[in-house]
Amino acid sequence: MGDAFDPAGFMETALRTGHSPLIGARYLGHGADWAELAMDHSPAIGDESGGVAFGPLATLLDMAAGTSVWVRLGRFSAHATLDLRIDLLRAATPGRTIVAHGQCHGLAGAAAFVRGHAHDGDPADPIALVAGTFMAIDRW
Predict the structure, then answer these.
(1) Is residue 1 part of a domain?
(2) Domain count, the chain
(3) What is 54-84 written as a DSSP string?
(4) Sheet holding 111-119: strands in order across?
(5) Model's pTM, two decimal places?
(6) Which residue has the higher pLDDT, 49 or 106?
(7) 94 and 47 in contact (C-beta within 8 Å)?
(8) Quick one: CA dihedral 133, 136, 139, 140, positive or negative?
(9) Rounded CA gap, 16 and 133, in Å?
(10) What CATH number is associated with residue 113?
């Protein structure tokens, strides 16, 4: 891939490999410094109450947060998740699609700072909040 970052094209490829297809992750959209991904409800990501298990939710939030860094940069740059705090606010409603929104708020040195949330239909009623720090493998 060249220097121009196309989140939709990148996600078309990235979401077919690794754990992404296992949770059913898909690209929804992006802006200048944010990205949204989603996963539809399925038994594979469910917990004992019929909602979503923490692992798939954490994975989707990490992916949306990391993608928001590339969107802000305007290019792909290898990075690692240094810190990812997820605050669960409530259980997801069984059967609903989960949307993860990540927004890159700043870049400093080799660090990127991201915040976001996950919801199951209403962004004003999130199921989780996320705050993360990503470290560039090479400088941004």
Answers:
(1) no
(2) 1
(3) HHHHHHHHHHHHHHHHHHHHTS---EEEEEE
(4) 25-30, 34-39, 98-108, 111-119, 128-136, 79-88
(5) 0.91
(6) 106
(7) no
(8) negative
(9) 25
(10) 3.10.129.10
CA pseudo-torsion sign 25, 29, 30, 36: negative
Distance (Å, whole) CA 93 – CA 67: 25
The winner for highest mean pLDDT among 13-17, 49-53, 91-95, 104-108 is 104-108
Its domain, for residue 101, covers 7-136
Note whether residue 51 is domain-resident: yes
- What is the Cα–Cα distance from 63 to 26, expressed in whole angstroms? 10
Give the CA count within 13 Å in the CB-facing half-sphere of 107: 16
Asked whether residue 2 is assigned to any structural domain, the reply reads no
